[in-house]
Amino acid sequence: MRALGRHLLVELYGCDPELLKKVDAVREILVAAAKACKATVVDVAFHEFKPFGVSGVVVIAESHLSIHTWPEYRYAAVDIFTCGETIKPEQAVRHIADRFQCPHPSIVEVKRGIMPGREPLPHKVEQAGRRSQSSREKVPAVS
């Protein structure tokens, strides 16, 4: 059996609460994590809640990285979903945990899109330089 993707569910406890409060810091850390694992960044969206907390997503050609922070608990929940064989999401986890000063991240991995067979599953980003379509381009409606 082969999987289309790997989904890492990451629990970060004991983080620096000042970093978890700041949308600019959280955005920079997740974008840098995507680049650290050699992902192709497509889009970025983050929101800062009042009085504190940040939610955001970095859309990558290979899927996404997302985060929700609770500075008052020194905690962040991170999802990293990657498709294909070239991206190493563990590198992104290492970067994020280090930057938020989390000493012991907890990681659960879920294989997504389990397919029968033993042959590698091609991924469009890995095929001859093809690019995925941006969500901002017009896509015909399906009825």
What would you note in describing this structure?
The protein is an alpha+beta fold and 143 residues long. It contains three helices and six strands. A six-stranded antiparallel β-sheet has the order 2-3-4-5-1-6.
Write the layout of secondary structure elements.
Layout: E1 2-13, H1 17-21, H2 23-36, E2 41-48, E3 54-60, E4 63-70, E5 75-83, H3 89-99, E6 106-115
Antiparallel strand pairs: 1-5, 1-6, 2-3, 3-4, 4-5
Helix pairs in contact: 2-3
Pick out its properties.
6-stranded antiparallel sheet, S-adenosylmethionine decarboxylase, 21% helix, 38% strand, single chain, 3 helices, alpha+beta, 143 residues
Question: Could you provide a short overview of the structure?
Answer:
The chain is of the alpha+beta class and 143 residues long. It has helices at residues 17-21, 23-36, 89-99, and strands at residues 2-13, 41-48, 54-60, 63-70, 75-83, 106-115. It has one domain (2-115): S-adenosylmethionine decarboxylase, CATH 3.60.90.10.
CATH superfamily: S-adenosylmethionine decarboxylase
Order of helices and strands: EHHEEEEHE
How many helices does DSSP assign? 3
In the CATH hierarchy, the third-tier topology is known as: S-adenosylmethionine decarboxylase
Low-confidence stretches: 127-143
CATH class: Alpha Beta
Q: For the report, how would you describe the main beta sheet?
A: 6 strands, antiparallel
**What overall form do the CA principal axes indicate?**
elongated
Named CATH architecture: 4-Layer Sandwich
Termini Cα gap: 33 Å
